[in-house]
Write a structure and sequence with these properties.
transmembrane; globular; ion transport; Solute carrier family 40 member
Amino acid sequence: MGAVLFIAAIFPGTLLPMSVYALMRSAVAVMLSPALESWIDKGDRLKVVRASIVGQRLAVGASCSIFWILYERKELGTKLRVGLFVVSILLACIEKLCSVLNLVSVERDCVVVILRDDDTARRILNARMRRIDLFCKLFGPLTISLIDGASTIVAIFVTLAMTCTSVLVEYFTIAAVFRMVLALQRTTTENSFTATEDNPERLQLAIETDRVSLRGMVDFALSATSNLLPLNSIPHYFQHPAFLPSISLSLLYFTVLSFSGQMITFLLAIGYTSYAVGAARAVSTIFELSATWIVPKVQQHIGAVRGGIWVLTWQMIWLAVGLAWFFASDESLTGNKIFAASGLVGAVILSRVGLWSFDLCAQSIVQEEVDE
């Protein structure tokens, strides 16, 4: 949320910069996230998670520096400002990739290994992890939005300070978890040796690529392309039992009716203050937190599949109500944009209970189908 507020302050009165920023960030995540698969599957788990933590925090810290320059030095030329904004987009892409790496490593790999044979404990752990995640998403953005209402510069420096502090906590606490759970300890060397030992063709390919020859260079290029765009894994994905819950979980976030960059920028553009946006985000997070208590009980009584259908219906109903309010209360009828948008905001807040509940239900189904 901090980046949204900062970009809105740097480029007031327009949704274009924020839209480009969000679009590029998401597009890079879609295109390059598959390349992370091999690292997660075969790499040292602790090194992978730590790399995601450090990479994410370094990208945020560098972005704060650029936002400070863009906001403070308004006399900079247009080309230089555009260039700095492009760099901030690249940093946002790195941050997003590291975020995906961290999410998949922890929730889709480590949690499955820790609680492989205990479905009840896994559901409880999923809910508690989501509860912590949502609380942090409440505390951080609310703090930044309140400070931004008084001073954007101070908000940028507070974001930088929070980033530097959190990286130290995360870096060492994740190591403590790995020391307590021996099953998580896996080294790159062990996996590489096993992979080549079990697959003579792969071993032969490795030997051939070591030769300084045209064929070796071609093989290396093909291997790199396969890692970047693993097209051969697509049929396996479509045939996997977790395909339907996985794709539905992806489509769940294919919307602007959430407190993401586009909606926040829209609210700021029509007259909402940073305080109002922060308050709405805080209320939304409180409703989202309720899902972490609701879902374990729902899954216990009716299962993850039926529970997911119920909470998804809840979400769709409230989004439909919000859109109806927004278009029925158009400015031409009420003369007030904020009145029309406020009804939509209220409905989106209520719909978030369904969104996060469905997220947890789908996550449970996917984890049950993931091989260790």
